[in-house]
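In keeping with the milestone schedule agreed at the kick-off meeting, the structural modelling team has produced records for the first pair of proteins. Each record is given below as a sequence line and a structure-token line. The laboratory manager (R.T.) confirmed that both were archived under the project's standard naming scheme.
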Amino acid sequence: MTLIRRFAPRLAIAAALVFASPAFAGQAVTLKPETLDADGIVTLGDLFDGAGSAAATPVASRTGATVVLDAGAVQSAARRAGLDWPNAEGYRRIIVRSGAATVSGAAKGVEVLTYARNINAGEVIQPQDLVWAKAVGAGPDALADAGAAIGMAARRPLRAGMAAQSRDLSAPMVIKAGDTVTVTYEGGGVSLALQGKAAAAAAAGDGVPVLNLTSKKTIQAVAVAPGQALVGPGADRYLAARNPRYALR
């Protein structure tokens, strides 16, 4: 009896904690397969099913077509609001898109290619700029092949953590309008070259009009490198051997 009386207060406290723990547990929620935001303010209700009274709690703002959230930070924000999201899938990032966009079911809750750093418009994507990461809401044209992004140029500024999507990339410009261009003809054992001025910008493999400074006539050539273009059989061979990733343009 003495031992029971001695430990009775501790047992009472332990029992109180056991029976009280459900009351302190957060409300269980699940991450939505399509994380969309319509007004630029991302809330817990935009992210989770079952958020209840915490649905209007703001988490982040979205100024562009997408915003990338750190999954750990989202989990902490949910916990502060009394929600329990265990993130059993191990997501590292959550991509929230404009509610007006169409989301493909093929890119829900899977590993997608994302950018490892912030990339400026016009920068060419290098292998080290890409990393696979678990994300949701990646979008209908998320790239599944790193080769489709490497060597391409960013059409607009891209943030670290964003899913790599074909619409954000284009073949890099190798010739700008007004550049001096050497146009080469090679075929039948004949090699000729002349210099002209590009009348438009062009990526590798694009057609580019070049003004012959001597004759004042415009030649339709194929851009191949900075300041270099081809015409004739050489241009045909170049186009036939081009990397198929440029079909993304």
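The second protein of the pair:
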Amino acid sequence: MFSSFMINAWIVATLVAVVAGIVGFFVVLRGSSFAAHALPLGTFPGAAAANLLGINPLFGLILFAGLGVVGTSQLGRRGRHEVATALTLVMLLGLGTLFLSLSREYSQSVYALLFGEVLGVSTSDIAPIAVMSVVAIGATFLLFRPLLLSAISPELGEARGVSARHMELSFLAILAFATSMALPVVGALLVFSLMVGPAAAARAMTDQPVRAMLLSVGISLLTVWAAISLSYLSDWPVGFFVGSIGALSYAIGRVWGRSGGVRLPCPVPESA
């Protein structure tokens, strides 16, 4: 389980879990679960484009993550945010279909980006993911108070000079960056569960923002560590265990909340 080829998996999965736990706290608090689901799906076509150009897929992921943020932000200026997110996702997936049709050697990579391939992470992938982790975490902590204020009380935030629109754009950028780095590890279909499940459980267990964020990171770490261990022992896909444990952690959080746990205020999810 700790042989040389597994070390990369443990390192990268740990980095992804920490970022997912921190960013996921704000995903849940801001009711942005739909954006957390749509952005990973909208960025994976970038890897298809990178494959056609013969460059590192991470660059394509970051580029399309940026396009997703711009599209969501601009289309949502005068309309419903979830509609803008859906339209942006449709446009990006359309481009992804075109890129995939132009490539005949991309099937395995597509599978990895959809469902993750943490055991296939190479040593050369660690440094870029580590840098992206530091950037995502640093940006989140730099904007921690404004993001928290705009999520809990947008009116109070505006009164204190915190622009709700600017915070929304900043948060989407952080979320896009975080999903880009997590995509090759847990996949587009499962990064959502890693960000939302642990964070939702943590929010139900405490009303202290910093404590909830740390708890979210802890649950996220336990999720990926347990997923890797169980995958190694059973030879089942890591993604299956990530999704299952993420759902289980959310269920435990709900039970905790109904039995007297406290919760942070949270806006209605945008997908509602």
